[in-house]
Design a protein that fits this description.
94 residues
């Protein structure tokens, strides 16, 4: 099955769910043009089952107890405001 790398933009929220092809492999999270984006390796088949992935965004110095048992994806530095965010996630298929 063919694979493709897709980009998903995250909203500026502490917790959010993004629909992705099931078994997507998270690759990276970065600030791109002021937006927080996640890149994932996914099945290219448009009929592939979509499943929710929950992302948790924690700013440096904030309470991180909610993400203690989540998977760490990466840290992104935002140019505007000088914020540094640490992104964790949890897949529904794990």
């Amino acid at each position: 099955m063919a694979k493709t790398i897709y980009k998903y933009e995250l909203k500026p929220a502490n917790v959010q769910t993004v629909m992705m092809p099931q078994h997507a492999k998270m690759l990276s999270v970065q600030n791109q043009n002021g937006n927080l984006n996640v890149w994932a390796l996914v099945e290219s088949d448009p009929l592939h089952v979509q499943a929710p992935v929950t992302f948790y965004i924690v700013g440096t110095g904030n309470d991180a107890s909610e993400v203690e048992h989540k998977k760490f994806l990466g840290t992104a530095q935002m140019a505007e405001g000088g914020y540094v965010f640490h992104i964790f996630y949890e897949e529904s298929w794990a």
